[in-house]
Amino acid sequence: MSRIKNGFYVLLFIGVIVMGCEQLGANTEADLTLQQGLDEHYPAGNAASSLVLYGTNSSSDGLFTINAETGETTFIGPLDPDPSLYVSPVSMATRPSDGRIFIWNNSNLDPVTGLGITTGVLLVADPCTGLATPLDPSTPDQPLAGGSMAFDPIDKRLLGILPLREFDQETGLITFLSSASLNISGADVNAQGHLYGLELGSLGSERLIYVDKTTGEHTIIGTLSVDVGTVGSIVFSPAGTLIGSASNGPLGSILFDINTTTAEVTNIRSMLGEVSAQGMGFAPACEIAPEIDILPGISPNVIDITSERRITVALLTHSGFDATTVTLPSITLGNDDAQDPHVLQNRNNVYLSQIKDVDQDGDADLVVTFSIELLRQRGDLDTSTTELILNGITNDGRSIRAADTIVVE
Question: Average pLDDT of 294-314?
Fold first, then answer.
């Protein structure tokens, strides 16, 4: 939410380990005890519901994720494979109802001369690929009209400041609602419907403001308590914390928290991997829809729940997806009812997992193990079960979900 410009496919192999195999860990009772503790620490849920902080800037001209706690960034991809398109993505807002990511782009490049061409277009970005397309290709360019964007969760409006303006969410056309103007670098609306902006001033003089959503008039809250450099964007976290971004200052590229009453800056952390974030927004994690192959080479996929006690799952690395990036605490298997068991741990609280080349294609794959007894206890597996669902989250916040048919005996 900013306006400045700075120059699986995955195959899953589920194998069954017979009762007598003791190589991977504890007995069934110990498995269950360890699993109960794991589930209390990492409650199961729909992985696709997790929110991720996304960012954009006119340096990488793409979409990336930001770890809001550590500042680490992961590049997803360019807004367009053509390097002459969408070279000034300077603002972002996300719509809570469907997670749509809006990005305002100020200019393109002339492919012949390399000179900038002022455009002004509202884009919609794909959280999985980073690719962006105009919200409505028939809408004419609106040069330099976008400004800092923010979605109002109360009034359901896509706003820009300052001057105060509203974007049509079908066409991207802008309607100006006031004439009051101020050089704003970032904007966002909190859960109570209050609109805030961060003024782009000279270094060390950036001010936090409150904006009236009807008149566009602003009230100065205060100057940021720390010289953060050139401010880029602001966004409210799901917990209600106002997070800012900045670069080119004494602290480098950073994220920081802002007190909305005093403008005090706290919890400064370095941004790693990107020069800054000129637009930020929280949206649901990209959900990867992998293909599951249960007991590959065997059809039907038969599981005998009376004689087998564990199920192993191999996540195979494929072009565009590294299976080893799926975080072990996030992986669950079951019927996707928010109570699915997590990966088993042994007596030493070590996850029952291996990294190996399962499909012998030269890539490292991830193999994890689940308890059949837990699947039975939680109603995920009985003689009427026809499929199992695996959920997980990669270390850059993308969700995976996969299902395949089984036959239970």
Answer: 80
